């Protein structure tokens, strides 16, 4: 009986693995046509300055709506695109689309703000990243300081020497760098000094339990203090409640982003919000 069970287990696992890799394969295939078929889009989530409640930037977040598979999360398809190398083309599409959109919003008269794009480690360590970024901002005619690049600590840590070089090239061009999911990855404080970083994005896992976990409260305070002493801006990710917001304000965090203010929105909806920013202002100022 045991033997039989064992065999069933084995079979169960192989079929699970088979169907999982079948999905990966078909997603990888479908991804090849995703951007030419118009299945990819960007949503934008506002970033709010806590001192005055103004929208000072947006983060561009990729969305993939496949006719058969439906909406596929970037958490699932970005790793597949990284593995297959497709991330280079997709990442270029993201950067060009986001920069073009921001330039258009500036021309439409919306107040100055930055657009942040997420960069995968694969893109970051690719030889011509800073050239590609320059090409795009020149082509789009977006002043470089309105483009922000988000990178995780682990992405930078994969090849620190190359990372420092690339970050310096980007910042010499005036492009701003944020460390995404700060506090979760492998990072050395000396990197922070050597990297030309502009902003620390406090990971949402620390924000989530601010109300109940004293350790998370301490970690958030320490990151804000670190930012202040190194002259870096701090932004909290995943802010969902008024309590979290109040804690962040009390402790001098510069900016916040999260469902409390707004989910990531499609172009139509974010434009509506940018036209009526009082909603955000009121949320930031309410007691
Ligand atoms: P991330 O850059 O850390 O983005 C934050 C994620 O948190 C987003 O998920 C966002 O929708 C979500 N979020 C925002 N506010 C809240 C909140 O208040 N509560 C909660 N629970 N979640 C919130 P999303 O859009 O599913 O993206 C997931 C990850 O996929 C991103 O994490 C980023 O690592 C990656 N990603 C997204 N777009 C791109 C892209 O264009 N290129 C690359 N390379 N990666 C991307
Ligand atoms: Mg991000
Ligand atoms: Mg993040
Ligand atoms: Mg993340």
Structure, described:
- The chain has 287 residues and is of the alpha/beta class.
- The chain is built from 13 helices and 9 strands.
- It has helices at 2-34, 74-84, 87-107, 121-124, 129-140, 153-157, 160-172, 189-194, 204-208, 214-230, 242-250, 267-275, 278-285; strands at 40-49, 55-66, 70-72, 114-118, 147-152, 176-182, 199-202, 233-236, 255-256.
- Strands 1-2-4-5-6-7-8-9 form an 8-stranded mixed β-barrel, surrounded by 4 helices.
- The termini are far apart.
- 33% of the residues are buried.
- The structure holds ligand C2E and magnesium ion (MG) (3 copies).
- One magnesium ion binds next to strand 6.
Please provide a brief summary of the model.
This protein has helices at residues 2-34, 74-84, 87-107, 121-124, 129-140, 153-157, 160-172, 189-194, 204-208, 214-230, 242-250, 267-275, 278-285; strands spanning 40-49, 55-66, 70-72, 114-118, 147-152, 176-182, 199-202, 233-236, 255-256. It is α/β, with parallel strands linked by helices and 287 residues long. An eight-stranded mixed β-barrel has the order 1-2-4-5-6-7-8-9, surrounded by four helices.
